[in-house]
Amino acid sequence: MTKLFYESDVDPSLIRGKKVAIVGYGSQGHAHAQNLSDSGVQVMVGLKESSKSRSKAIEAGLAVGTVAEVSAWADVIMILTPDTGQKKIYEEEILPYLTAGKALAFAHGFNIRYGQIVPPDDVDVIMIAPKGPGHLVRRTYEEGGGTPSLVAVEQDFSGKALSLALSYADAIGATKAGVLETTFKEETETDLFGEQVVLCGGLTSLVQAGYETLVEAGYQPESAYFECLHELKLIVDLMYEHGPAGMWFSVSETAEYGGLTRGPRIVNERTKAEMKEVLAEIQDGRFAREWIAENDNGQQMFKELRRSSAEHPIEDVGRRLRAMMPFLSSTKDITGVSGG
Prior knowledge:
Elements lengths: L3 E2 L7 H4 L2 E5 L3 H12 L3 E5 L6 H7 L3 E3 L1 H7 L2 E4 L3 H12 L8 E4 L3 H4 L10 E7 L3 H9 L6 E7 L5 H11 L7 E4 L1 H16 L1 H16 L4 H10 L1 H19 L2 H14 L2 H15 L2 H11 L3 H11 L2 H10 L18
Parallel strand pairs: 2-3, 2-5, 3-4, 5-6, 6-7, 8-9
Antiparallel strand pairs: 1-9, 7-8
């Protein structure tokens, strides 16, 4: 039976007795640093001298230094920079100060799972991975709650690595919502699979294909946008709150029957076979090697794919329609692509 850890299962004093360096101050970095600090943990944020985030961290009342400075100072070093830059930062500015008995922490296992970062044997290697974006991690903490999180131990030099990871999770509020123990391997592989097959890749491709099918059949682009993208939030919210069964209960019987009979024709055994192949590429390292090589080559193919996706006709229609929806929290275009 899977065990979830809550406040009563952890020793909050463990992390409060440590000095914690937060390397990076982006979505997760700002949330971890502020939550830890508000929980009474000694925190320093590690950033480049030229980083625009330095002023934000200082305004939040946090101490800031270079990555090398905070790594030398800290007992626990949490790396919260993008995956693609972690290897260089680690080797140049963290490893020289990663002395025996310290703990190296991550919020995603990519660089450990695929051997981009190989820590020395005499340190703890742990993961604390909130299952939500940084703004949610911060907001729920301020509201007195927390965001569910995963914890994992790759290397337990101290014999207390799991207890330390749980104590850290507690200090960012996660034990109020529940913390699940996993492994670096499981977290990395399931996270990549979910992103590629369902949450980002699969969903976007499904929406675009549905939009194209309706427009090519002569229907108005605006109608296609509403039916294939705009209403998606309603369905996702229902599934998020009540599961698939709750969603079926909440929609019309026409939608339920049509979905139950036609959905499996779209996502079928051929689709699942391709999902298994994508999973195999994640498991055996093919995806990781491809992504690492893409970054080594200046992200040329990635940039072209990003440009092509941003120029899909659904984007222009969506910008025009969202601009007429004052009930949206924000209608600002965050992609940087010009349009309505």
